[in-house]
Design goal:
23% of the residues lie in helices and 25% in strands. The protein has 429 residues and is of the alpha+beta class. Among the domains are: 21-126, Immunoglobulin-like; 176-238, no CATH class; 268-347, Immunoglobulin-like. The strands form five sheets. Strands 3, 4, 5, 8 and 9 form a five-stranded antiparallel sheet that branches. A four-stranded antiparallel sheet has the order 11-12-13-16, with no helix packed on it. A hairpin with a 5-residue loop joins strand 11 (268-270) and strand 12.
Length: 429
């Protein structure tokens, strides 16, 4: 009894003492950062992450970074002293040509072996990627000349089209090529500063001549209906257009925090395109979380493959039975582009949470117990008969052995007959 008590106490104490100390290198999603806040497709950025020692033992290791499931690179080896300063690991990353990305980081190669794996892995939210076809460092979505390099974004007439790609820089109704031929300033709508735009001034280089002479020339060149049409076109082209402004805070809405971090004992799964993560909570229950930020899409739709759906960012779903299901996340961005990510989930029939499996296991246990009970209750007479039969067999075997070893009988030797001599009777005196 005392031994049982001691063993029980040791079983309780040892796990607690094992959790209380040991080597433990950890990382957190809040400690990951980049060398830039703007991610341009094709450019190289540096990813940094702060590494901590939360154990009571000196430890070393390195961090491997992934773009979704594709490995980027592994960092340099970092060494952390117990109760010492944190270290920073990093790798270089070429931004891919796609709409967005997220980063997964994993601690590897620890020495001594890390005893706590619950804080060894993080997964960031999705980061938006901009495209820059002309290489001027400005997102094509806000670049006033997306196909022509225009670093200064000069836009003289403020019509939202940069000078580098605007046929009419001063918006006076005359193309720049035409103004070059006329000798007027393509960036000044009134080259002679007479108060009339070059398109209205029939003497754009003579500030003293405009109206009287111009009217005579116009009347000679055009009919009245044609003149009205030309003047109407000039009036429309002279109106300034509003500048198309993009939301400068769009990138600020991207959060650099992990949507779901793996907790101790939980298995974190990432969808094929890294648009969502999911965790299995039970036999038929799963939790799903979209990694897309609310500002990057107009609508979200889940299809769990069993006729059920949801429009929530984070949702828990319980299936009604075992089987294979296709879970689909559909996102529609502000441009109407549909993004889909599909993950196959298999729910096995053979699970202890399945009532039918519980019944089968219960019946097998009952049959086993009945078999053991039947053997234990077998009559003693039968056992005695078995023992007696065994004794008879053993006796027969012994007789066979004795018979084999019995010596061959020798021929009897004839005994010599002894002849007794007759003695004469003694005479009486």
């Amino acid at each position: 009894m005392k031994k049982l008590i001691i063993i029980s106490l040791l079983a309780l104490v040892l796990p607690i003492s094992a959790l209380a100390s040991g080597p433990d290198m950890s990382i957190s999603s809040s400690d990951i950062r980049f060398s830039t806040d703007t991610f341009v497709a094709g450019e190289t950025v540096r990813i940094y992450i702060k590494v901590k020692n939360t154990g009571d033992t000196d430890i070393s290791g390195y961090i491997t970074f992934y773009d979704s499931s594709d490995i980027i690179d592994s960092s340099q080896v970092v060494t952390l002293v117990a109760d010492g300063a944190n270290e920073e690991a990093w790798v270089d990353y070429v931004v891919p040509y796609k709409n967005n990305f997220n980063i997964r980081a994993l601690i590897k190669g620890t020495e001594p072996q890390d005893t706590n794996s619950s804080n060894d892995e993080i997964l960031t939210a999705l980061f938006s990627i901009i495209t820059d076809n002309d290489g001027d460092g400005i997102d094509d979505d806000i670049d006033n000349c997306p196909n022509t390099s225009n670093v200064l974004q000069e836009d003289t007439d403020g019509d939202g089209v940069g000078n580098a790609c605007d046929d009419d820089d001063d918006n006076d109704g005359l193309d720049d090529d035409v103004e070059d031929e006329m000798g007027t300033d393509p960036e000044d709508s009134d080259s002679d500063n007479d108060g009339y735009d070059d398109s209205e001034d029939y003497y754009p280089l003579d500030e003293t001549a405009f109206e009287l002479i111009a009217q005579e020339v116009v009347v000679e060149l055009f009919e009245e209906d044609e003149l009205d049409e030309i003047l109407e076109l000039i009036d429309e082209s002279a109106q300034s257009q509003e500048i198309i402004e993009d939301d400068d805070d769009e990138m600020d809405d991207v959060q650099e925090e992990t949507v779901i971090e793996r907790s101790s004992g939980a298995m974190l799964h990432v969808s094929p395109n890294a648009s969502f993560v999911y965790v299995r909570e039970g036999w038929k229950t799963y939790s799903f979380q979209s990694l897309a930020q609310g500002s990057t899409y107009e609508s979200i739709s889940w299809d769990f493959g069993d006729g059920s759906s949801s429009a929530q960012d984070s949702v828990s779903h319980e299936y009604q039975q075992h089987g294979v299901y296709q879970v689909k996340l559909q996102l529609v961005d502000s441009n109407g582009v549909v993004h889909e990510d599909i993950q196959q989930i298999t729910i096995s029939f053979f699970h202890l949470a399945n009532p039918f499996v519980q019944i089968i296991v219960g019946l097998l246990v009952i049959l086993l117990l009945l078999s053991v009970a039947t053997i234990a209750k077998k009559p003693k007479g039968n056992r005695k008969e078995v023992v007696e039969i065994k004794d008879v067999v053993e006796v027969k075997e012994v007789k066979k052995v004795v018979a084999k070893k019995k010596p061959v009988a020798k021929k009897p030797v004839a005994k010599k007959k002894t002849v007794k001599k007759k003695t004469a009777p003694k005479k009486k005196a």
